[in-house]
Amino acid sequence: MSLKTASILVIDDDVDVLTAVRLLLRPEVKEIVTEKNPENIRSILARQEFDLILLDMNFNSSINTGNEGIFWLKKIKEEFKSRAAVIMITAYGDIDLAIRSLKEGAFDFMVKPWHNDRLLATVKEAVKRKTSKGAPDPADNASSIFDTELLGESEPMQDIFYKIRKIAPTDANILILGENGTGKELIARAIHQFSNRASRPFVKVDVGALTESLFESELFGHRKGAFTDAREDRTGRFESANTGTLFLDEIGNISLHQQAKLLTVLQNRQVTRLGTNEPHPIDIRLVCATNIPLAELANESRFRKDLVYRINTVEIVLPPLRKRGRDILLLARHYAKVYSNKYLKPALELDEKAVEKLLNYHYPGNVRELQYSIERAVIMADGPVLSGRDIIFSPIETATVMEEVVHTNLGTLEKNTILRVIEKHNGNISKAAKELGITRTALYRRLNKYDI
After folding, report:
1. Tens digit of pLDDT for each residue in 72-130?
2. What is the DSSP string of 64-83?
3. How far apart are CA 109 and CA 101, in angstroms?
4. Which of 22, 177, 200, 442 could form a disulfide with 244, with the two C-beta atoms 3.0–4.6 Å apart?
5. 24: part of which helix (H) or strand (E)?
6. Reported confidence tier of residue 144, pLDDT bands at 50, 70, 90
7. What percent of the chain has pLDDT over 70?
């Protein structure tokens, strides 16, 4: 079926959206029907079968659950028995719901505001796939678009691949969250690789490692003589990334003062080099990463909430390796191949004991720890098989975990002791402090620390 013979139904409570889609598609399709009220979907589908349905994710209707689009998608597929391909229409804030809609049977989704040529291409592909396969299968596009540097067959990683594929072509600012070693930089590079800026610069800055004195110079640039060591003019990272992608790693570690400087640049979309008063406009796609959980990042005593909103149009949360199941073996075999080639060894296989050991480990260092463990095993291996005794995990990570456990246990012990003594003295802080052998000020600090 060609687009010229297709009939399309568009359902959205925004009249402007309906008008825009109708004007765009009317010259391209056989018929286009628009509807503002989703309650009328049943009667419309009872009268006519459509090849494609464009469906909004949220309506001002009696179904006010925040995921109305999912509700109506299920109705269309299960109750109304429509064979039409469905494309969801969503805003940035609904990306997670839109990804869920793919699992519920949607062909694809478009993020508002869209580019007309991209919407038209998606509509054409949906009609083409419906004709060739009878029903579209969104899983076909899951991870095949990614190279060997980004591997994963587990459900959490498939969700991330879906999200990358959908948000990469937009200019939405992305915040990547996850423990150290989970691959946040790989995700940032994948977003750039599949964006419309792929041929432009990708510039990475570890902002958490920049001192207060270097922060502005490194990011915004400086003129010769702006400060003691400024011996020549320098272009900052923002200008270096102009028209491309700027990746700010460890964003959660910058000070409140640095945050204010960064926020000003992002709001004004221009930088002023140190030692000058001349602003330079910038056009960047911003991707940030941190190992700090979002709830902790949103604590205004540590991080400005207005900056969190600015950098977090869409968030991607990377799972720790211990929650990725048999992705562990997929990655282990990949690294075994890489390091066998590097060290001029024959292809190495994992024996049963090695597989068992790999799957039963908790990986505090995540993918990075697995990578180094496999490299070490390949170096030490004597034959064509990696055995369980060849797999040795980092004592550094083990020591870190034990230190965290001891710290947690001591903290719990101290908190319980304080609670018990305060209760003994009926809330009298002076008497409790005296029995604990600390000052009232020190006790108040501990009360704040443990949120007592």
Report:
1. 999 998 888 898 999 998 875 566 677 777 768 888 888 787 888 888 988 988 888 77
2. -SS-HHHHHHHIIIIIS---
3. 8
4. 200
5. helix 15-25
6. very low
7. 88
pTM: 0.63
- Is residue 202 classed as helix, strand or coil in its secondary structure? strand
Cβ neighbours of 133 (radius 10 Å): 10
Helix 15-25 with 116-133: angle, nearest 10 deg: 70
DSSP labels, 385-402: EE-GGG----HHHHHHHH
Domains of the chain: 3-138 (3.40.50.2300), 155-317 (3.40.50.300), 321-393 (1.10.8.60), 396-449 (1.10.10)
Please classify residue 416 by burial: count the beta carbons closer than 10 Å to its beta carbon, then call 0-12 exposed, 13-18 middle and 19+ buried.
exposed
Question: What ranges make up the beta strands (E) of 199-319?
Answer: 202-206, 221-222, 234-235, 245-249, 270-272, 279-281, 285-290, 314-317
Are the beta carbons of 106 and 139 closer than 8 angstroms? no
d(CA 143, CA 190): 11
Q: How far apart are CA 305 and CA 297, in angstroms?
A: 8
Helical ranges in 348-394 per DSSP H:
352-360, 366-380
Which of the 8 DSSP states describes residue 274? Answer: B
Report the percentage of the chain scoring pLDDT > 90.
48
- Reading the block at residue 266, the tokens are 């992002």
For residue 202, how many other CB atoms are within 10 A of its CB? 19
pLDDT single digits (tens) 46-64:
999 999 999 998 876 544 4
In tens, the pLDDT along 121-139 reads: 889 888 887 765 444 343 3
The SS3 call for residue 4 is helix
**Confidence (pLDDT) at 142:** 40
Q: Are 40 and 61 within 8 A, CB to CB? A: no
Backbone angles phi, psi at 251, to 5 degrees: -60, -25
Q: Which residues contact 272 (CB under 8 A, 6 or more apart)?
A: 220, 278, 279, 280
CA distance 368 to 184: 11
Q: How far apart are alpha carbons 114 and 90 in whole angstroms?
A: 10
Residue corresponding to tokens 């990306």: 95
Q: How far is CA 392 from the centre of its chain?
A: 31
Q: Determine the Cα–Cα distance for residues 24 and 156; give it in Å rounded to an integer.
A: 36
